[in-house]
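pls read this stuff:
=====
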Amino acid sequence: MRTTTGSARNKSKKRLFKRAKGFRGGRSKLTRTVKETLLRSGVYAFRDRRVKKREFRKLWIIRLNAASRQHGLRYSEFMFGLKCAGIELDRKTLSEMAIHDEAGFKDVVDAVKKALETAPKPQHAEATA
């Protein structure tokens, strides 16, 4: 006869139920459902660790676009000017500056505008036909 109440099995179930703490209904009480739910939650966690990075980058770009437009530049012009000026601040830092250090951000924008004045205009490919 197979044992169903051994210490190893109890320890395994206890570990599962501990991870499922806070889940609702059978998702925290039924072994099979707990396993399925934990497996799915692990998949979501893995996926969303990458999605979070995308979401934050989108947020920083939105903030930088709004902040740079207040100073008369579009986001794309601002980023091109940063490259021309040799300023190597990332979007996260620039976004935080735009919110918390407006004077510092204005200095960066002024440096970008100065670099854009001296930078060659980007050449767009024109149709020759």
Notes: The chain has a mean pLDDT of 92. The domain at 52-118 is CATH 1.10.1900.20 (c-terminal domain of poly(a) binding protein). The chain has two domains: 10-51, 52-118. Residues 64 and 93 are 10 Å apart (CA to CA).
